[in-house]
Design a protein that fits this description.
Elements lengths: L1 E6 L4 E8 L2 E9 L4 H15 L9 E5 L5 H18 L3 E4 L1 H6 L6 E8 L4 E10 L2 E12 H8 L6 E4 L1 H5 L1 H8 L3 E2 L11 H13 L18 H14 L1
Parallel strand pairs: 1-4, 4-5, 6-9, 9-10
Antiparallel strand pairs: 1-2, 2-3, 6-7, 7-8
Helix pairs in contact: 1-2, 4-6
């Protein structure tokens, strides 16, 4: 199965083509402000370099957040357009889920994406050879509340994502010895390759009968929505 996957929910704009879980080619650009400009030429270049067309692809996948509101919308609309053109299936992968496929290890894995101001998007998985059980739902909370929640498991937890780097000191202080970190920036970054691997495993494993829909997973309101609410509340007063 050939998979074209993209990741646009962070400052990295990335696209990949995989044969099942084997990477054929990945292209990445780290520039959050140009996803709308760079993504389509990047995909065109990827297809050209692999001698493939959109009709050669069996499955399209993208990350659906949490992350950049604009980036998520760009990625989803692009994949939806490809599906309409080719009549091929697509899968949306939560960013927090794709991160666990960066590691290639079994056990308890906590994905953390920095949400600024001492907050993080997080979820906890029990991962085993491509399949997983979601132990804690996708959520946004303070890093202190997250660490307090994780204490109850009393298990070795491996952290992944840029939040694990940003809040490493807090996690170490609160969790004692039951943790493991990777300082490698590539392991902690969102990538289209991991999105593609996650997509393949989701459709391959019978334990995942419910496929994630291709709709945004924001977990919090956009800046524009929050500003509008503040303005409306101020007018009421």
């Amino acid at each position: 199965m050939k998979i074209l996957s993209i990741s646009t929910s962070s400052n990295v704009c990335s696209c990949s083509i995989l044969e099942n879980t084997k990477l054929i080619k990945e292209l990445s650009i780290s520039d959050n402000n140009t996803h709308s400009i760079k993504l389509m030429p990047q995909i065109s270049q990827l297809l050209s370099q692999t001698n493939l067309t959109l009709n050669s692809i069996d499955l399209f996948a993208c990350d659906i957040g949490p992350g950049s509101f604009t980036g998520i919308r760009i990625g989803i609309s692009t994949i939806k357009a490809f599906c309409d053109i080719t009549n091929k299936p697509c899968i949306g992968i939560p960013s927090l889920t794709s991160l666990i496929y960066n590691l290639g290890i079994n056990g308890f894995i906590c994905s953390l994406i920095d949400a600024k101001n001492n907050n993080a998007y997080y979820s906890l998985f029990d991962y085993n050879n491509g399949t997983y059980q979601l132990l804690e739902p996708f959520c946004l909370d303070t890093i202190e509340n997250i660490t307090n929640l994780l204490k109850k498991y009393n298990k070795l937890i491996t952290f992944v994502g840029n939040g694990s780097i940003q809040y490493k000191d807090v996690l170490e202080f609160n969790l004692g010895k039951n943790y493991r970190f990777y300082n490698n920036i590539n392991i902690n970054s969102l990538t289209s390759t991991s999105v593609g691997i996650a997509a393949f495993n989701l459709i391959k494993n019978s334990s995942h009968s419910k496929i994630h829909s291709l709709s945004p997973l924001y977990l919090r309101k956009s800046n524009a929505e929050r500003l509008l609410e503040e303005k409306l509340n101020a007018n009421k007063n």
